[in-house]
Structures are given as C-alpha cells and as structure tokens.
Amino acid sequence: MAKVIEGLYYSESHEFVRVEGNCCYIGITDYAQNALGNVVYVDLPDEDEEITAGEEFGAVESVKAASDLNSPISGTVIEVNNALENNPELINKDAFENWIIKVEMSDKSELENLMDAKTYEEFCIK
Amino acid sequence: MTFKFFPHTNEEEFSMLDKVGAKYREDLFADIPESIKFKNDYDLPWSMSEIEIRQFFDKLGKKNKQLKVFAGAGVYDHYTPAIIPSLIERSEFLTSYTPYQAEISQGTLHYIFEYQSMMAELTDMDVSNASIYDGTTATAEAVLMAVAAGKRCNKVLVSSTIDPKILKVVNTYAHFHGVNIEMIDAKDGVTDKEDLKNKISTGSVAGVVIQQPNYYGIVEDYSGYADTCHENKALLIMNSVAADLAVLKSPGQWGADIAVGDCQSLGIPMNFGGPYAGYMCCTEKLTRKMPGRIVGMTKDNRGQRAFVLTLQAREQHIRRQKATSNICSNESLMTLSATIYMSLLGKIGLYEAAELSYGGAHYLYEGLLRTGHFTKIFDAPFFNEFCVKYDGDVDELQQMFIKNGIMGGFKIDETTLMFAVTEKRTKDEIDMLINLVKEGVR
Q1: CA angle (A108, A80, A31) in 5-degree steps
Q2: Is there a contact between B151 and A43 if contact means CB atoms under 8 Å apart?
Q3: At the top level of CATH, which class does the domain A9-106 belong to?
Q4: What local confidence, expressed as pLDDT, does residue B85 receive?
Q5: Could you tell me the pLDDT band of residue B328, with boundaries at 50, 70 and 90?
Q6: What is the distance in angstroms between the Cα of B57 and the nearest Cα belonging to chain A?
Q7: Which residues of chain B have a CB within 8 Å of the CB of A68?
C-alpha cells in the first residue's frame, strides 16, 4: 500500500503540495513513484518560471514510462531540487521528502480544489 | 492485374476486403475525393526483357560524362577508399534491419557507437546521435531542439551567410512548427555581429544558426558568439562540413551548443545528391532533447561489454505528442561508410586530406587571380572553397570547362563563380583549369 501523508494536498494526477506560508513544495506522491517504477530522469523547470494550475511544468521518466508533471497550483518557481538532476532515483527512495519544485503561490484558494490525504487515499484505491 | 510474385491470390484479397467490410479494392480509397483521383491509363512504355533493360540503361549510362570536379557548395568530391564499398556492401550491413534487438545486432550497434565517439571527438562536443538523414535536416532538427529547450521562446536567428539550400529546409520545418525564423544580416560575406546583438536583445530568441565555413567558403571569426547567445539564453547552432573540422577550430571550441552538418565529405561519393548522412552533436545538458537514437555501451548479464540503443523513448514509444521530433532512426549505411573512412584515415589522415584540399584551393585561387580574368570579392580567409568574380560570361566559361572535362565552379550569380578543391585534384588538373581561363572562351 502506497504511503499517504496527512496535512498535504493532493492532485488527481498524483502530485502532492506541502504548504509553508505563501510557498509550497511540489512533488509526486509515493503512489506515483511506485506506479512509474525506477525513475531515470526528471525534466525540471527553471527558477523564476511562471506555472499555472493544471498545466505541465516538467516530466518524470522511468524505465517503463514517462509522465508529465502537472502543476496543482499557480505561481512562480522559486527553487528547483537540483539534486534530482544527477540522482533522479531519490524520488523512489522517498517521494514526499524529495520534492521537485518550490513555488510561491499566486492564489492560495486554488488549494481548495485539491484533495486531502483521506480523499486521495480513496482516489488511489479506485 | 496479378503477378506470380505478388503473394496474395484474388480469392485471398476478396476475403480480406470482406473482413473489413469493403467490396472492391477501390473502396479502401473512398476517403480520397474523386476530383483528385487519377483515372486515366498510366502512360508507361511496354515492358522490356532483361537484355533490353540492360541495353537501355547501358545507352543511357554512356551519356554520362566523368568531369573533374571543381565545385562544391555543400557536396565535395573526396576520395572513397576501395575498402569502403566492399565492406558496406556485405549483406550483414547492407540488408540488416534496424538494431532494436540488441542481442542479434551487436555489429551494427558497435559501429554506430564508434561513429558517435569519433564525431564527438571531431566536433569537440559531449554527445553525438547515431546520425540523421542529412546535414540540412540535421540543422532544421537543431532549430526545433533549440525551441524545445528554450521553452516559451519560438524565434530562431539564422545568419544570411548560410547555404540557401539549408535555409529552405529550415524554413519548411519552421513553418509547420510555428517557429519564427529571422535572418541576421551579412557584411562583406560574413555575419554581422552587431546585427546579431541587436536582434537577440529583443528577446524570445531560442537559438542562433551559423555556418562554418559559411556558404561562400569563408572561415568566419565567431569569437564571442557563444557568449552573446548564452547571455540571452539562446543556443548556438553551428553547421560545418564534417571533414573540414579536421583542421578548423571545432564547434565545441567555439562554444556551440549543437553541432550539425553533413558527413558526405567523409568519403561518401557525391551519389547524384544522396544518400548522405547528417551528424548531430550537442552538450550533455541537451542530450534528452536530441532527436534520433543514441547507442550506449553497457554490460550484459554476464558482465560482457555490450551495446544497446538508449534515450530514444520519447520520440518513439511514449509521450509522442510531446516529442521535439519524429525522427527515430538513423542513416545507418552511410554512417558506416563515414565510420570506416574515419578509421582508415585516422586523425593524421583526415588532417592531411584537409591540408591537401586547402593547399589546392589556395593554389587555384592565386592562379585564377593571376590570369587577370578573375578578381577577388571578399578579403577573408577560406578553407577549400572560394568565390571570385569573372570578367566575361560565366555560363560560356562553364560550358567551355565542361567541353574540356572540367566541372568548373558553382555559379553564384551572373558574374560570380565559387570553386572548390579536394585532395583528389592534382596540380596538373588545377594548372589545366588555370590555362583554360588564360586561353579564354573560344
């Protein structure tokens, strides 16, 4: 059973959002990393890039699939987890710990469109 | 009409049609509008027997004239060592299928790997792909790569000193991908650096395309170009004739992000325009944006060295709608030809062939100027190709050359000829050309 953490927000395309003030960390969920298998590459956006909720901001490639990263919220990328550039397998080790981007949110109310841990857990079972 | 070498009988064909719900073969083309269908009889000559065919082509072949080639403009008459055709015509190479199944394709994968290693060294770039169709499409693919890497930028600047044939292909690709191509002015046959700086500063430029040597044969000074590009987050794309890189400063040394060009100069015969092979090399950072395929070296389950296709997933198998290109294959047989050529000649051999070409071209240049019928156009360094102005009728001069067994230059305009010399041209041949000019058109 895939791990789900309380207090995070979740999207239907299996990204998580960990909020810290006006900023948040975005990554893929444990369920997603498990479904993808060994991650071999993360296509990262640049810092200062504007991202929009529902739109693609990068991609994760594994040995068996490649999947777009969709932004759960809108804002500006203020930090990119560069460790993933050379060690993409960190996502398999701990998906929640190894976030992909840190974003300054432009509209916090967008968080309301996302799922909480319990709803996401049920979503995954379906 | 049925032939015994078509495997399907009428019966089988009808049963297949029946399966898909069609009555006649024509029904399969129902989506094509009647107005554009060809309904007449094909105007084809009656069939010939084998001996008639041989006689027909024999006669046709005799119309060909073997000329001493003093023209280039992208395609050069370099020597093809005899071992190349005899090796690449071996059926293991000539008829082999694409090397998807690594366990039965180690030979093909190995030579592609060697090719990549040699191209990366020749261009001084981190990575080479397994080759693509030709030098012009390689340039167009590089443009798309720059746009994909530049994310929201869709403008690419191209120097006016680029070969117009390359530009045409680039424009075609750009048109259908929504890429905005803008030309950088040229001054005295070389790229106008100030114009580049002005145009790049307007923003949203994803890449800059330059050619070295340029279309007119001039070896341009591209100092500072890479910095200008990188300061503006644009990629520098450099097109070069592969063999020229044996002596010229390499794309990697100029700071290019993508190096492209044609491999024809690596001993591939002119072949009436093809097949050739295009090379494409880039920095490690761009590896995943590079179209085509790459062969990698690894170890098999017994720990033995093995070669395998790698990093080609996106184009071919998954997320195809997001791919920067739909090129998934390579120009393998011609790549093999270039690989054997480079292995045969080695570093020193490539250098010597280039040096001979350089020497011959400069000898011809001086000789032509001394005849008094030619004058210089550009005061710029060149490698094995140069432009000169003629004081008479260029067409008549070229016809006179042909009568004397010489393909004398490529016509740039009504007064300008561009001559190219390779290691194949002897001093006697060059002297003969110069003497023909001295004697004049009679």
Answers
A1: 75
A2: no
A3: mainly beta
A4: 96
A5: confident
A6: 52
A7: 319, 322
Task: Please give the structure tokens belonging to residue B364.
Answer: 């011809």
Q: Which of A41, A65, A67 is opposite residue B288, by nearest beta carbon?
A: A41
C-alpha dihedral sign at B141, B145, B151, B155: negative
Mean pLDDT of chain B: 93
Residues of A with Cβ-Cβ distance to B151 under 8 angstroms: 45-46, 49
Q: Which residues from B are below 8 Å from A59, CB to CB?
A: 319, 322
What integer is the mean pLDDT of B215-234? 96
Residues B14 and B105: their CA atoms lie apart, in Å, by 39
pLDDT at position B316: 58
pLDDT bin (cut points 50, 70, 90) of residue B433 is very high
What pLDDT does B441 receive?
66
Query: Residue-wise over B73-101: b if at least 16 C-beta within 10 A, else e?
Result: bbbbbbebeeebeebbeeeebeebeebee
Residue A46: CB partners within 8 Å, gap ≥ 6? A77, A80, B151
* Closest residue of chain B to A65, computed from CA coordinates: B318
Rounded to the nearest angstrom, the gap between the alpha carbon of residue B272 and the centroid of all alpha carbons in its chain is: 13
What is the reported pTM?
0.87
ipTM attached to this prediction: 0.72
What are the tens digits of pLDDT across the range B372-425?
Answer: 999 999 999 999 999 999 999 999 999 999 999 999 999 999 999 999 999 999
Does the beta-carbon distance from B319 to A68 stay under 8 Å? yes
pLDDT tops 90 at residue A114: yes
Residue A111 DSSP class: G
Query: Measured between alpha carbons, how far is residue B198 from residues B50, B193, B390 in Å?
Result: 64, 9, 36
CA-nearest residue to A86 within chain B is B285
Inter-CA distances, B213 with B2, B137, B216, B245, B375, Å? 54, 18, 8, 10, 21
Start-to-end Cα distance in chain A: 13
Residue labelled with tokens 């990068």 = A58
Task: Provide DSSP, B51-97.
Answer: HHHHHHHHHHHHT----EE---TT-------THHHHHHTSHHHHTPP
Of B151, B288, B318, the CB nearest to A65: B318
d(CA B102, CA B87): 22
Tell me whether residue B441 is exposed, middle or buried, using C-beta atoms within 10 angstroms of its C-beta: 0 to 12, 13 to 18, 19 or more.
middle
Q: Say which amino acid occupies B200.
A: I
Domain extent listing, chain A: 9-106
